[in-house]
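Researcher: Please predict.
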Amino acid sequence: MSASQLDNARPSLRERKKAKTRAVIQHEALRLFRFQGYEATTVDQIAEAAEVSPSTLFRYFPSKEDLVLSDEYDLLIGEACLRQPPELGPVEAIRLGLRSVFAELTAEEVADMRARAELGLAVPSLRASMVDQLAQAIHQVNDIIAERARLPHDDLVTSTVAGAIVGVLMAAEFYWVEHPGSDLVQLLDDSLGHLGSGLPL
């Protein structure tokens, strides 16, 4: 890759500042949710802790729920999966894509991810929204599989494979939340490896 291509691939200063602001807002929100509870924490308190205005907060996170449920990992993982060699099957491509993205996460980012998962399971309103996210995740994975395989996006086979992949990833995440000290990256990798081998018992 040439120097000019590298420059084009790098996020601009504006994009980096926006990503940093978004990360600070979400981190402060999760800190307050852990300290005083999700329901008891107000958007104004989060904005003050993150040193932004409420209107700025809402530009990044349109609702309070989004502070827990939204992240940019899906996009990064999707891009990483599409970059994998075309000869790889869908499970292995997603496995390697996940590895590449999660290898870049800091300990703080993983801790925030755990806090989001714990809140999503513990708060009834968030748990209900997670069902919608599950359906969206299947569609997103289906699109990745279909694009890599050059198949129609409404193909039953790609949708079935996407459902299986999302299912094992969700199972690994639930296990991670229920077993403090376990390694999320290893759990995700092992679960996809198990799926790829046909889910033997």
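Model: The chain has two domains: 1-62, 71-201.
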